[in-house]
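In response to reviewer comment 3 from the previous cycle, which asked for concrete evidence that the modeling workflow produces usable outputs, we include below a single protein chain processed end to end. The sequence was submitted unchanged, and the resulting structure tokens are shown without manual editing.
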Amino acid sequence: MEDAQRRLDGNAVGGVLSEVFALEMTNAEGACASCGAVARVGAAMFYPHGMGTIVRCARCDNALMRVVYQGGSPGRYVLDLKGLQYLRIEEV
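The workflow returned the following structure tokens.
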């Protein structure tokens, strides 16, 4: 299956991010480090993979963030946010 066939919108990544962040993440706003587009996480493109989660800019396809869960005892998450200029998270 090709990436385009696996692609979901950014709202789908809310479940993965809620495991890491206590606040609602689909409403968080970020700026793409590549093209400068400012949008909510829910507007991004979400690619779930066995090796982790990739969230891409809907405008230029830049990888905004990568989320990897490393199981074990204790389990841990690795976050790569270098594709974002910033990520603004609002309290609900």
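The longest helix spans residues 14-18. We consider this sufficient to address the reviewer's concern, and the full set will be provided in the supplementary archive.
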